[in-house]
User: Which sequence fits this backbone?
């Protein structure tokens, strides 16, 4: 399991624009670099990130080999109602990780 | 006109050689000491300041888990003896390297963690630059954020400190450079596009964008040595601890900022 750091406010008022920050520990190996033995290291990157609020997708990103290690993604959301966010990272070699966080809107 | 063979050096060149040859190597005065943080652009400074963005915090979170994880031997975890890191480890990293009575030599924080593992936890020492050792040292050092570096006033450390100072001031490598030539005499100027910092170890282990990961002060010192085309010492060499000791003296009383972010 990769370490993730997810930060968003625990509470918000309806109509507030909130910032969601996500950081995941991942080498983002490009697939172009030789390793210590001279052979090309296989590509190992996160290719897709999806954030859902309850059942609705609210943010999606595709990532490519030029992304830095430990990709940091931040985006905003207009607070409508209380609920749970799910954050999913998918990548090479079957990498998939999902985390969740809750918000109370009142 | 080129000088004829055997003729004295042109006066200007001679004057240059005389003024340049002996490096001044005056340590930076305490009031003038500044962290490499100040030399960075606002983007990377913001990255370091915000714990939600600072990628070093990923390792700190790993370290927090390791702190409470019991070793396979069934002996206590770090927390089992030391308790809450936020209080027990506050200020500890600011006092390292320190004298280790058991082995009768100075040790840095990494050595201390490994000694603790061996002696009190019955566990294998962690390899230098391994993710677990970086995570644990980052976690411990983060508890001292904002604490001024305060090297121990311990006479037993004097010999190593003097050795560190000599290593810092002495020319080495194929380019004939010393640490002091860049970091004492020319800090604030540029080497290529990069600003030369004063070279204070305020944020180790730190996240370097160039490394795309966390690294220890020893890794940084090895980088500098290879950059000077000198033979780097092996990880864990006493020369590094001596250098770390001198660097801590040279950096006091700057506050610790682990986990720092550097370009």
Assistant:
């Amino acid at each position: 399991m990769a370490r993730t750091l997810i930060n968003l406010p625990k509470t918000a008022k309806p109509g507030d624009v909130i910032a969601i920050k996500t950081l995941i520990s991942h080498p983002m190996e490009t697939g172009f670099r030789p390793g210590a033995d001279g052979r090309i290291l296989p590509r190992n990157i996160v290719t897709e990130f999806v954030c859902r609020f309850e059942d609705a997708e609210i943010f999606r990103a595709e990532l490519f080999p030029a992304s830095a290690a430990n990709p940091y993604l931040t985006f905003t959301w207009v607070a409508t109602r209380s609920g749970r966010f799910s954050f999913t990272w998918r990548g090479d070699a079957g990498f998939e990780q999902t985390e969740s966080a809750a918000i109370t809107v009142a | 006109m080129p000088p004829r063979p055997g003729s004295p050096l042109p006066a200007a060149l001679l004057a240059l050689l005389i003024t340049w040859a002996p490096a001044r190597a005056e340590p930076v005065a305490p009031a003038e000491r500044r962290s490499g943080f100040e030399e960075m652009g606002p983007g990377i400074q913001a990255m370091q300041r915000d714990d939600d963005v600072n990628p070093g915090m990923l390792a700190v979170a790993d370290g927090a888990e390791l702190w409470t994880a019991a070793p396979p031997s069934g002996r206590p975890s770090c927390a089992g003896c030391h308790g809450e890191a936020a209080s027990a480890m506050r200020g500890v990293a600011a006092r390292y390297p320190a004298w280790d009575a058991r082995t009768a030599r100075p040790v840095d924080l990494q050595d201390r963690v490994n000694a603790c593992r061996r002696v009190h936890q019955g566990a294998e020492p962690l390899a230098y630059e391994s993710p677990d050792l970086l995570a644990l040292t980052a976690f411990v050092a983060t508890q001292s954020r904002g604490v001024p570096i305060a090297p121990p006033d311990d006479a037993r450390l004097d010999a190593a400190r003097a050795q560190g100072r000599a290593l810092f001031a002495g020319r080495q490598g194929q380019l004939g450079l010393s640490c002091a030539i860049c970091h004492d005499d020319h800090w604030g100027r540029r080497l290529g596009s990069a600003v030369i910092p004063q070279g204070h170890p305020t944020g180790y282990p730190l996240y370097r964008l160039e490394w795309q990961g966390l690294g220890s002060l020893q890794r940084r010192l090895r980088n500098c040595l290879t950059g000077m085309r000198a033979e780097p010492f092996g990880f864990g060499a006493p020369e590094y601890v001596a250098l770390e000791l001198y660097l801590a003296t040279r950096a006091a009383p700057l506050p610790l900022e682990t986990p720092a972010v550097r370009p």
About this structure: Residues 68 and 106 of chain A are 37 Å apart (CA to CA). Chain A is about 0% helix and 50% strand.
